[in-house]
Amino acid sequence: KAQYPDLFGWIYIKFDDKHIINLPVMQGDDNSFYIHHAYDGTESKSGSICVDYRNTDRRIDLNQNIIFYGHHMNDGSMFASIANKYKVRANFDAVPIIFYSMEGVYTFNVFSIYNAKAGDDFDTIAFGGDRLKQFCLDKQTKSFFSKKLTFDKQKTIVTLVTCTNFGSEGRVIVHGVLDGYDSFFD
Q1: Residue 35 has pLDDT above 70, yes or no
Q2: Is 161 left (phi over 0), alpha (psi -120 to 50) or beta?
C-alpha cells in the first residue's frame, strides 16, 4: 500500500489449477485509468482489475454494491475466466469470490451470471429501501443459473464486469452476495 497508494485490495478466485484469478485491485479517480494501466501506473493493454471509483468506503461491508472491472484477455488473463468458468454450473454453485481488503477477508457466494450491454443497469452503487433486494432478485432472473438465496437491505453484493470479446458493447456480469468475513485485527 505504501508503494502503490491506489491499491484497494486483492481478488482471488480459483476455478481449478489452470484457471485462477489472483490479482491486485486498484482504484483510481475514474473508471478508465486502471483499465489501461498496470498496478504500477505504466500503460498496459491488459490494464488492472479495478474497483469503481464511486465505491468510496474501503470497508467492503459498508458498500451496498462493490463493482470490479477487468478485461477479458484472449490469453485467459485478467477476468477472462469469469466469463467462461462461471457459465459452468458446478463452478457457479461452488466457487466463491474472495477479496482481501486491508482489514480482512471477504467471501462472496455467486448468485447471478448473465450477458449484458454496456449501459445496462448492473452498476448501481447504492440503493434506498428495498431496492437492493429487488436489484438482486432481478439479476437472478437474468442469470443462466439460479440459487435459493435471501437478500435484504443490509447485505453487501459484489459485481464483476468484463467484456464478452464479441463486440465493444457486450459484457459478462457476475454478482455475488457477502457470505463471510474474517478480520485481520480480532
Answers
A1: yes
A2: beta
